[in-house]
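Researcher: Next sequence.
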Amino acid sequence: MKQQDPERFDLGGGQCTMKAVVTTGHGGYEQLVYRDVPVPTLAPGEVLLQVLAASVNNTDINTRLGWYAASVTTATQDVALARENQTAQETPDGGWSAPTPFPFIQGTDCCGHVVAVAPGVSEQLLGLRVLVRPSMRPSGFGSQENIWMGSEFDGAFAQFVKVPAGEVFAVNCDWSDAELATIPCAYGTAENMLQRAQLGRREQVVVTGASGGVGSAVVQLAKRRGAFVTAIAGRAKMAQVKALGAELVLAREDDWVASLGENTVDLVVDNVAGPAFGTLLKLLKPGGRYVSSGAIAGPLVTLDLRTLYLKNLTLLGCTAWAEPVFANLVDYIERGELQPLVAQSFALDQIAQAQRAFLDKTHVGKFVLIPPPPDPA
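Model: Next structure:
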């Protein structure tokens, strides 16, 4: 992906403007600049949304920090602390698959209201409250090419965002805007992992990081599939995770092998990684599956290949979502099968405060940013 024009957010005469948080480079919170920028101009096939709510994800922070660079070997929290005490510097390979397109607007999760459509796009979309599918396949679902809103092009940390018309999904429910904004990235990632790993009824699944956005979504989505869920969380959050439907909750400090036994688990869903990786593989039955879409405790792990091949294990990495994933989530919401978890809402200009709270890891669920309403026309 090409770098953006560094002056593309500059204001000229007569432009319609909006408030947005522009991420200007890799670094600390000083890279998050709340300012006026031009309202996006629609290209063919696009719609313009007024952003009603946008939640915070680990990937927003990782992208700002340059955590995806091969040179980074530690946890997100460690990198964030280091960035607080360093002069900002660009990390050429710090984006997902290409240099991050600074300056740009982050924000992977969006609950929005369709306010304009490009010529040729159905005007029946106007006025709908929608969720945006952030994991997009520009070459179709037969290709592994995959781009993400808010990581590789402008996202929802703004009053308005433009997206392809085919990526918006109307939702008919009584949830608040903030509650809907907790869904796209976390629940889509969780549903995609469970689909890819083919979790079935009565299977035993272990979920790490179960109090976080993705982990708490996995607990709910695995439970609705009829699995027996063992969740791992901080001791102070265990009761809240239990209330989501987990049959058993273990603390991060517990001896998981002593509690569950070796060779007892069908599937491990792990977005934590770090030092616990080898222990998780011990839990898996012969023929078991391990699936991951993150590594918040550290991306480098120790793998004993004998465990992998002698137990006939399957290791699955997930980023690009399968086509049914997002439509399934909308269906689950409309049928009342999911529980939204809003830890706290912040005004958009309080993004640094929200991300600090996110990294403190004392919450269960998601932090949500609310943009100011646009000025009357």
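Model: The CA atoms of residues 235 and 251 lie 5 Å apart. The longest helix spans residues 184-197.
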